[in-house]
Amino acid sequence: MKKKRILSLSFVMLLGLSMILAACGSGGSEGGNSSSGKGSSILVFGRGGDSTSLDPSRVTEGETFKVTVNLFETLLNFGEEDTTIQPGLAEKWDTSDDGLTYTFHLREGVKFHDGTDFNADAVVKNFDRWANGDADKFPYYSSMFGGFKGDEEHVIDSVTAQDEKTVVIKLKRPQAPFLKNIAMSMFAIASPTAFEQGDDQFERNPVGTGPFKFVDWKANDTITIEKFEDYWQKGLPKLDKVVFKSIPDNSARLNALIKGEIDLADGINPADGEKIESNDDLQLIERPSMNVGYLGLTVTRPPFDKKEVRQALNYAIDKETIINSFFEGRANIAKNPMPPSISGYNDDIEAYEYNPEKAKELLAEAGLADGFEMELWAMPVPRPYMPDGKKVAEVIQSNLADIGVKAKIVSYEWATYLDKASKGEADAFMLGWTGDNGDADNFLYVLLDEDNIGSNNYTYFKNDEMHDLFIKAQTEVDEEKRNEYYRQAQEIIHDEAPWVPIAHSTPLLAAKKGLTGFKPHPTGSDMLLNVEVK
Amino acid sequence: MVGYVGRRLLQLIPVLLGMAFIVFMMIRAIPGNPAQVILGQQATPEAVAAMNEKLGLDKPWYSQFFHYLGGILKGDLGQSMRTRLPVADEIWPHLAATLELAIFAIIIAVVIGMNAGIISAWFQNSWFDYTAMILALVGVSMPIFWLGLLGQWGIAIELGWLPTSGREEVRDPVHAITHLYVIDTILQGRFDQLGQVLRHLVLPGFALATIPMAIIARMTRSSMLEVMRSDYIRTARAKGQKMFWVVYKHALKNAIIPVLTVIGLQMGMLLGGAILTETIFAWPGIGRYIYEAINFRDYPVIQSGILVVAFIFVMINLVVDLLYGLIDARIKYD
Predict the structure, then answer these.
(1) In the prediction, which pLDDT does B320 show?
(2) For A37-96, how does the pLDDT look when each residue is reduced to its tens digit (9 = 90+)?
(3) How far apart are CA B157 and CA B164, in angstroms?
(4) Residue B79 counted as domain residue
(5) What is the Cα–Cα distance from B286 to A332, expressed in whole angstroms?
(6) Contacts of residue A3 in chain B, CB cutoff 8 Å?
(7) In which domain, by residue range, is B64 found?
(8) Partner of A262 for a Cys bridge, out of A44, A298, B44, B203, CB 3.0 to 4.6 A?
(9) Are A410 and A421 in contact (CB under 8 A)?
(10) CA-based torsion, A263, A269, A273, A276: positive or negative
(11) Cβ contact (<8 Å) for A139 and B42?
């Protein structure tokens, strides 16, 4: 009898506990669904990781730029959804005929968040700050402008203030993508008053001229920015506050969006696309593609030193199946190392079609009619250009088996993977790239030129003719001539086949229905100037 | 007693030294160059070389190790290579987040786990016993990743009872003082926020508590079963004392020592091993802090982060050992 009573008692206790939890829940569930009751409009932007720093000139990492593009402005801007050059803090600019002198006419009435005036002097101080730094402090500056003050390769000769609102930049030699470089978010103009107090404290207390100013940063959790009341474009931004929230897991981030805890989510799995489209409360947003996912073939490792073998792999891999199965069709088949949206893309190149017979013939020509054994490196992390490395590797593995090549799939933790691949230790490896400034140089030269062996040219591919074309293109200011160089280079790359280009994917975002005015940018750094949340 | 504590604290020194050395060597044995990872794919070789020199990575390992040890002895945990902030400043908010979650989880695990274990032992072979022990088996083997997402979907989205992730309502953020949000909201008298913070704790707390709860339940049950068969329990029952008091007062006191050991170990595990829960629930805790440092090869953060967690682990075990003496008068330290 007693036993029974205690058993039922414990059951009642369990029931009670669950009721308390439920009550707890219904008590405050309104809080999760709408913006806070104070009548201000807040956007919560969910993303995968936290920023490293809030000084864009000191990092090379995208999660930082996502925030700083809204805190700072650059002399020139990219277009809303492309990488054309548009006015920014400079209203107008002139280029001399020899391509050596650039004159920027600055906008009037612009102030930094700390009240400092924006003028030519501030611009000069920013360039001086970068040029007097070193590669450890300003890593991107040296990659884009060839080094620092005093280095022979440094492109910028001088930056001077002609008057209060005019800045003149003189170059030592023409640099074709100069204006595009100037528009990159890392070369944002910061308040001299703020950074003169020390670089390290500036990273945590950024001061720019952008539509939002910095409020608070909770590491690995949230970064909060709020409307800058004295912003030079009246009536903008439309939001009062933006909170960038790190939710590392893609599914958990989508859950938070469905629940209404966040308004906008980056890094949506292609597989979730349909689920979002069929949800009446959500909208799916496609980011314009500016990336490439590829299988690199290390040309120093036999048998990949033979062109025929590399071409054979190009014929052997069924890209269409890969794109349909793992990108859910949200990608285009790649035939060149850069996406078609980039000026200089060679559309005349005929893609290697899926043709195992042809592949076998080529292998036979190379004296490998019986096939060979190789290692196939599968990417351990999902990236927009390669959502599921291991599964794509399995498809490639079975494609290769069809032509008699035995591929063993291997994978390492990400930092190890990159390190070993850059040392040329992989036979064939998956990798990809997202462009920084929409220039052909930023894909072709960076990924395939001999100058970048050991860093971004993981295949160790080398070609003198191609190298000459790249170097000529870098200083050629005539756009048409320059594009011709890149088209020729793509022909060489196509024929030599150091890569099997796979896909140019469309990265996905999702937002709640009431969000308007959001324009995803191909570089991955989105301006939130016109965004509204209802 | 004081002498015992003193001796135990002295023993900590070689343990932590050994720990520091092993971690130091281990992270250097894995491939991957911190400078390259920090600077990103775009970095030039010169930039990487400059970074290596700045970080002191161009020096031989023993010189790096002694430099690091020297810093630790001065109370300097080093500086993060990635964020350029002192590890000592960065670590507390993360540690606080994990502490709050781990304490919440261990309370759930102890309350539910121990009671389930006691009742199972009391009514051995009843339906409750079978159900509880099957649930415990399921609990131990449940992947947290799956359980977490299931909780988010079922309890947060479908039922709408709780938030899916995070520590606070982001549209009404907690002003951090101690970084333990439960305490911060009470200090500021924001009881509405306290409710929010507690609601955010429930899902990750239960997810994290599953495994310890199951282990504690099983440990309690077997330990109780043993005690329940002893003579003094039979005597107590023969005296006609109420069964409830026999179980919860007399039996439990003698059965609790091994359970306490398990609780201590589990608490230590929760502090360092909450990475999965922290990832799924976007909890900015120490597990994720160290995990991300590993991805970036941020040596000082990995070294000092693990050292701090190890230190707390050892301290918890010390406290557990001292508790034995308080609970069981037969255990004496001198």
Answers:
(1) 87
(2) 456 799 999 998 888 889 999 887 788 999 999 999 999 999 988 888 999 999 999 999
(3) 7
(4) no
(5) 40
(6) 123, 126
(7) 2-73
(8) A44
(9) no
(10) negative
(11) yes
- Whether B44 is covered by a domain: the verdict is yes
The number of folded domains in chain B is: 2
**Closest-approach residue (CA) in chain A for B167:** A221
| Within a domain: B231 | yes
Query: Is there a single domain that holds both residue B164 and residue B207?
Result: yes
Handedness of CA A231, A234, A235, A237 (dihedral sign): negative
Query: What type of residue is A426?
Result: A
Cα maximum dimension of chain A: 102
A433: closest CA of chain B, how far (Å) = 9
Chain B residues with CB-CB distance to A422 below 8 A: 36
pTM, entire model: 0.86
Residue A124 to residue A106: CA distance in whole angstroms: 12
Among partner residues B51, B161, B279, which is closest to A249 by beta-carbon distance? B279
Mean pLDDT over the full length of chain B: 87
Residue from B100, B88, B152, B80 nearest B284 by CA: B100
Write down the ipTM of this complex. Answer: 0.86
Nearest to A398 by CA among A335, A322, A292: A322
Same domain, B300 and B253: yes
Kindly give, in sequence order, each residue whose CB lies less than 8 Å from that of residue A339, ignoring residues fewer than 6 positions away. A289, A290, A291, A292, A332, A345, A435, A504
Q: Above 50 in pLDDT, residue A1? A: no
Residues B115 and B192 in one domain: yes
β-pairing, A499-505 with A331-333?
Answer: antiparallel
B107 has a pLDDT exceeding 60: yes
pLDDT at position B326: 81
Contact A140 B42 (CB under 8 A): yes
At A262-294, the pLDDT tens digits run 999 999 999 899 999 999 999 999 999 899 999
CB atoms A414 and B196 under 8 Å: no
User: How close, in Å, is residue B239 to chain A by CA atoms?
Assistant: 17
Q: B141: which residues sit within 8 A by CB, 6+ positions away?
A: none
Q: What is the pLDDT of residues B261-305, one digit of tens each?
A: 899 888 888 887 688 899 999 999 999 999 888 888 888 898 899
CB contact under 8 A, B148 and A415: no
CA dist B181 → A476, B165, B193 (Å): 58, 15, 9
B37, B38, B42, best to mutate vs chain A, most A CBs in 10 Å: B42
Chain A with chain B: Cβ pairs closer than 8 A? 203
Distance from CA of A461 to the nearest CA of B (A): 17
CA distances from B4 to A192, B319, B326 (A): 59, 12, 14
Residue B42 pLDDT more than 80? no
∠ CA B156-B161-B164, nearest 5°, is 30
Same domain, B67 and B120: no
The DSSP code sequence of B28-59 is HHS---HHHHHH-TT--HHHHHHHHHHHTTTS
Strands A508-512 and A264-268, how do they pair? antiparallel
Could you tell me the end-to-end alpha-carbon distance of chain B, in angstroms, rounded to an integer? 5
CB contacts, 8 Å: A147 with chain B: 46
Chain B residue numbers with beta carbons less than 8 Å from the beta carbon of A450 are none
CB crowding B236-267: b at 16 or more within 10 Å, else e:
beeeeeeeeebbeebbbebbbbebbbbbbbbb
The token pair at A154 is 């440094």
Asked if B55 and B100 sit in the same domain, the reply is no
Same domain, B204 and B313: yes
> How close, in Å, is residue B42 to chain A by CA atoms?
7
B28 and B142 in a single domain? The answer is no
